[in-house]
Amino acid sequence: MTQVTDRPVSDRKAQLEARLVLLNARLAEIETELDSHMSPDWEELATEREADEVLEGMGVSGQQEIRAIEAALARIAAGEYGFCVKCGAEIGAERLDAVPYTPFCRTCAH
Ligand SMILES: [Zn+2]
User: Fold this and answer.
1) pLDDT at residue 108 in the model
2) How far is the CA of 105 from the centre of ligand 1 (A)?
3) What is the 25 CA–ligand 1 centroid distance (Å)?
4) The pLDDT of residue 7 is above 80
5) Ligand 1 centroid vs 54 CA: distance in angstroms?
6) What are phi and psi of 2, to 5 degrees?
7) pTM of the entire structure?
8) DSSP helix/strand/coil, 90
9) What are the residue ranges of helices labelled H in 1-110?
10) Phi, psi (deg, nearest 5) at residue 83
11) Residue 69 pLDDT class (50, 70, 90 cuts)
12) What is the pLDDT of residues 21-35, one digit of tens each?
């Protein structure tokens, strides 16, 4: 495939895979933390519930990012990485630097 950015796709792939490992580790930590919140004390429970909501929020956004990264890795494997899935335009290197797993060009992301 033709190279679409300044950086080789293998670089992007390594970056995405490293990020995926990090996210999976963080999600595992969040789950452990949630599981440990089994206090019978009501007041403490209320505080922990708030903390749990924050943790769960982090978990959800982490899972969304994981799915986006997995989709990006699939596009790399298919040779489609770096092109917008909506309009087919080339996604700029600067945009990929900021959001390496983005499936959209700058125009379609808005
Ligand atoms: Zn587009």
Assistant:
1) 96
2) 4
3) 32
4) no
5) 33
6) -80, 150
7) 0.78
8) strand
9) 9-35, 42-78, 93-98, 106-109
10) -115, 145
11) very high
12) 999 999 999 988 888
**And the tokens for 61?**
């956004």
Tokens encoding 70:
């997995």
pLDDT in tens, 71-99: 999 999 999 999 999 999 999 999 999 99
The whole-angstrom separation of Cα 94 and Cα 89 is 14
Judge contact between 44 and 1, C-beta under 8 A. no
Using the predicted structure, report yes or no on whether residue 2 has a pLDDT greater than 60: no
5 neighbors 62 (Cβ within 8 angstroms): no
The single-letter code of the amino acid at 27 is L
User: What letter represents residue 68's amino acid?
Assistant: A
Give the pLDDT score at 1: 47
Q: How many Cβ atoms sit within 10 Å of the Cβ of residue 19? A: 16
**Nearest-angstrom CA–CA distance, 71 and 103:** 8
Count the residues in the chain: 110
Q: How far is the CA of 53 from the centre of ligand 1 (A)?
A: 35
Tokens standing for 59? 């978990």
